[in-house]
Amino acid sequence: MKQAHLELAQCREIGLEAFCGYEVTRGNRELGRYARGLCGGCPVITECANEALDLEDVGTIRAGVAIGDQQTWRARAALEFCAAHGYPATSLDVAVQWGLKYGVRPRSNAGPRD
Ligand code: SF4
Questions:
Q1: What are the structural domain ranges in the chain?
Q2: How far is 67 from 79, CA to CA, in rounded Å?
Q3: What is the C-alpha to C-alpha distance for residues 89 and 106, in angstroms, rounded to an integer?
Q4: Burial class (CB in 10 A: 0-12, 13-18, 19+), 1
Q5: Ligand 1 site-directed mutation target among 5, 13, 14, 38, most atoms within 8 Å of CB
Q6: What distance in Å separates the CA atoms of residue 64 and residue 61, rounded to the nearest whole number?
Q7: pTM of the model as a whole
Q8: pLDDT 10s per residue in the chain (114 long)?
Q9: Rounded to whole angstroms, how far apart are CA atoms 73 and 106?
Q10: Residue nearest to atom 2 of ligand 1 (CA)
C-alpha cells in the first residue's frame, strides 16, 4: 500500500503485517465481523480493496474481508463491492455483487419482492 494510504489506514496502529498469515478459516463469522468492524469507516478502504484485488492478497484482512488461503469468488465479490461502494460488504451485498457480475439474481428473500 502506498505510504500516503498507510498513514491514513485505520489499522495503522495494529500494523498491516499483523494480519499476514492470519488463520482465516472458511465460514468464520466471528472473524468476518471483526474484519468489517476494523475496516468500516477506514478512509482508504477503496484503495485497500483495489490493491487486494490487484495483488491477489491471501491469508489476511483487507477492506473488511477476511481472506483465506485463496481468493474465493465470495472474497473477490466482497472486495469488488467494497471497491465500488467504499464500505465493507455484508453477505447479501456479496450475493448481489456476484449476481450483477454473472447476470443471476441472488437466492434470498431478504429484500422486497417485485
Ligand atoms: S481497509 Fe482495513 S485493512 Fe485496509 S487499510 Fe483500512 S483498516 Fe487496514
A1: 3-102
A2: 10
A3: 15
A4: middle
A5: 38
A6: 7
A7: 0.80
A8: 777 777 888 888 876 665 655 566 656 778 888 889 989 999 999 999 999 999 999 888 899 999 988 898 889 999 999 999 999 999 889 888 888 887 776 555 544 443
A9: 14
A10: 39
